[in-house]
Amino acid sequence: MSKFSHFNDDGRAIMVDVSDKRSTIREAVAGGTVYVNPEVFRLIAHGEVKKGDVLAVAQIAGIMAAKKTSDIIPMCHLVSITGVDISFLPDEKRSKIDIVATVRCKGETGVEMEALTAVSVAALTIYDMCKAVQKDIEISNVRLLNKTGGTSGDYTSGF
Predict the structure, then answer these.
(1) Distant-in-sequence, close-in-space partners of 8: CB < 8 Å, separation ≥ 6
(2) Whole-angstrom distance between the N-terminal and C-terminal Cα of the chain?
(3) Contact present, 6 and 14 (Cβ < 8 Å)
(4) Using CB atoms within 10 A as the burial measure, which of 5, 46, 102, 122 is most buried?
(5) Which of 9, 85, 128, 136 is catalytic?
(6) pLDDT by residue for the chain (159 residues), tens digit each?
(7) Which of the 8 DSSP states describes residue 50?
(8) What is the pTM for the complete model shown?
(9) What is the dihedral of CA 142, 146, 149, 154, to 10 degrees?
C-alpha cells in the first residue's frame, strides 16, 4: 500500500483498505496505571470492595473491550483476535495498579488499538467499581509498549 489515509479524494472519511497487505502474526502490548488511595488499594487487594472482585471484573471487561474495539473507534478495522491477556501489577507502596494488555492476531492490520482499548476499559472498570469509596482515582500513562508484525515493523517504547 503506497497511501495510508483516512480521507478519500473528496476529503471524506474512509476506512483504509488493507486488502493488499500480507497476513502476518501481529502482537501489541499496551500499558496504563490506576492510582488509588491506600484504603482503596487495601480493599482491592483483600477482595473487600462491595461490588465484587475488582481485578477479575476489570480483566473480563478489558478482554471484552479488545473484542469490540472496531465498534467504538470509527476507522478501526474488525480484527480476528487470536488471543488477549491482561495482567495487573499491584504496587502497595505507591497505591497503584499497573495494567498490561497483550493482544494477538493473524491478519492484515495490527492490534495496537485493541491493546490500548483493553487497558483503558480495564482501568475504567477499576474506577467504576471503586468510585463509591474514592472519587479522585487517577488513570494515567495509557500507552503502546510494543508491537510486532506487519510492514511498518516492530516498535518498542522507552517505557
Answers:
(1) 14
(2) 30
(3) yes
(4) 122
(5) 128
(6) 345 577 888 888 888 888 888 888 999 999 999 999 999 999 999 999 999 999 999 999 999 999 999 999 999 999 999 999 999 999 999 999 999 999 999 999 999 999 999 999 999 999 999 999 999 999 999 999 999 998 788 999 976
(7) T
(8) 0.91
(9) 130
**Residue 45 to residue 22: CA distance in whole angstroms:** 44
Catalytic residue at 53? no
Give the total residue count for the chain. 159
Contacts of 131 (CB under 8 A, 6+ apart): 137
Contact 59, 88 (CB under 8 A): yes
What torsion do the CA atoms of 142, 145, 147, 152 make, to the nearest 10 degrees? 80
User: What DSSP character marks residue 6?
Assistant: S
Say how far apart CA 22 and CA 151 lie, in whole Å: 8
- H runs (alpha helix) in 46-157: 54-67, 69-72, 112-130
